[in-house]
Design a protein that fits this description.
Layout: H1 3-20, H2 22-25, E1 30-32, E2 38-40, E3 51-52, H3 53-62, E4 69-73, H4 74-95, E5 104-106, H5 113-123, E6 129-132, H6 135-142, E7 151-154, H7 160-169, E8 175-180, H8 183-196, E9 201-205, H9 230-242, E10 249-253, H10 263-282, E11 289-291, H11 315-333, E12 339-341, H12 345-349, E13 353-363, H13 379-386, H14 396-415, H15 421-441, H16 448-455, E14 459-463, H17 467-470, H18 472-476, E15 483-485, E16 495-500, E17 509-510, E18 513-515, E19 518-520, E20 523-525, E21 535-539, H19 545-548, E22 559-565, E23 571-577, H20 582-588, H21 593-609, H22 615-629
Parallel strand pairs: 4-22, 5-6, 6-7, 7-8, 8-9, 9-10, 10-11, 11-12, 14-16
Antiparallel strand pairs: 1-2, 2-3, 4-13, 13-14, 13-21, 15-21, 16-17, 16-20, 18-19, 22-23
Helix pairs in contact: 4-5, 4-11, 7-8, 8-9, 10-11, 13-14, 13-15, 14-15, 21-22
Amino acid sequence: MTAAEARVQTDKTEDVHRIYGIERWGRGLVTVLDGGDIGLVDPLGRAPAPVSLPVIVRALAERGIQTPVLLRVAPFLDHGIRLVNEGFRTAIAETGYQGVYRGVFPIKVNQQAQVVRRIVEYGRPYGFGLEAGSKPELVVALSRPLPADALVICNGVKDEEFVRLAILSRRLGFNTVIVIESLKEVDTIIRVSKALGLEPLLGVRIKLTNTIGGAWAASSGDRSTFGLNAEQLVAAIDRLRDAGLLHCLKLQHSHLGSQIPDVNDVRRAVTEACRYFTELSREGVELSHLDLGGGLGIDYTGEMRATESSVNYTVAEYCASVVETVRYALDEAGLPHPTLVTESGRAVVALSALLVFDVLEATLYDIETAPEPEPGDHHLVHDLAAVRGYMVPNRLQECINDATYYRNELRAIFRRGVVDLREVARGERIYLRLMSEIRRMASDDVTPEMEAQLYRIADIYHGNFSLFQSLPDMWAIDQLHPIVPIQRLNEAPDRRAILSDITCDSDGKIDRFVLADGLARALPVHDIREGEPYHIGVFFIGAYQETLGDLHNLFGDTNVATISLREDGGFDLLEEVEGDTVAEVLSYVEYNPRECLDDFRRIVDAAISQGRLDAVGGRTILAAYRESLNGYTYYE
């Protein structure tokens, strides 16, 4: 390759880079290599050069780990933990705050053992702890080798067994805080504490009246599900005082919200939380910790705007806003600065995982050729073809209107038996060719109406994944995640497509995409080449997606690989987990795979007895059934 050719290729790569907005949402973790591959960048600097994602995918396939694969990048997880903890350390130092920060990771955000184990490992230098919202999560937290100064925050509804385990764990050195969520829990805690003869370490969750914006607004404000209002808070204090346990109340928990888009909402909520902290102190409550819950958001789109999938602040700005607001409020009240606690699960883990899947086939609507009408065709077919004669830039909307009208009328008379199948097929192909030409001719600043009409002819790329299993938030709440082809980004994408999953459900599609110039209804993609794999990457899915995935169409967990990036440009496979087999998935929904095999064998035996099948055919069918039971639930 000549220097000039290399320069042209590099320019193309940069142009494509801009199409997908990778420099905006990639945060320096994702880039495009000169050869057109997506590259993963070690944010800790231990691997000096980006590592090619397609190379990783091919190497995993050679080891038997095929797509779809969930790829966990260990340095990205380490980076997330450092960002939050160092952000608070810096803010504390710069503002002269007299307390410390002790964050916790909410296990519900990603309950997978590999993830929690690494969070504990990477968080150890910071005294990073865990939050448990259920008995199973508390069992997980208490089995982890947490540092001595780490917290275990217990939220959620708690029965006597939950409370008993939490109190007893204090004898092992755990800093297990039981957060009171209701007045009923106060009575349960008092009863269990007296029965054990042990004092608990307590917190109380207080409902704030401030609400935040975004998709999770309902998790904030005084109509949120958990916590005490002002009246209930006073009653709880009185009951604890009467029981001689008020001195055990050390932590105030005030959940700010989830994925908070606007940093000013953070300031307002923290200010209100400080008012409660001040008043509780005046009531004689010896508070030492202020837990501000979750809320630290992720900018999935790179817009840096206060929208549902973006935020208008950085991690550093969030930390500074919290620390500064608490310091001013408590200085004004004349109170010592408490230990600050947040439960920033999304910010810690979201960036650490991505899903890679292969495109199995494509349904193309952007066609290159169309037949001419035949002499005997209905006039509507001829009318359709005639639209090309006045297709000029200032009449494109007129062309769309006319072509759509003629096509719809042709379909109507087909239903009435006026035209035959071949005639309507010619009309459909002429229509698609017209719309393809209109799309190429249309400028970037098309009207919303025209964009919606052109979207209807976007290609469909059929991917080897389940939206409901691997990306449930994209289906359920329209959560956006960056999506981009992971190869050939030195080639201009010549098609636009929506992504359809492997399920048989019409909802199993993705038709909202993050691009450099905003959101789009179709993803720029390349032609599929025969015999050459084409992979799509969905980035920053580490928060909630693994935990919330369901078994729609009985597609199970994908293969999982955890990698670290090496100095020589390669990678190390730290751990791998095989995706669910069909038998495993069946057991999740109360089938016994062995019984299924036995039942199927009886059906085969009956067919042999009835002469509809010979013994060799019976063995072949049984072998196929057994192989399917033990196979991957996705396309192999």
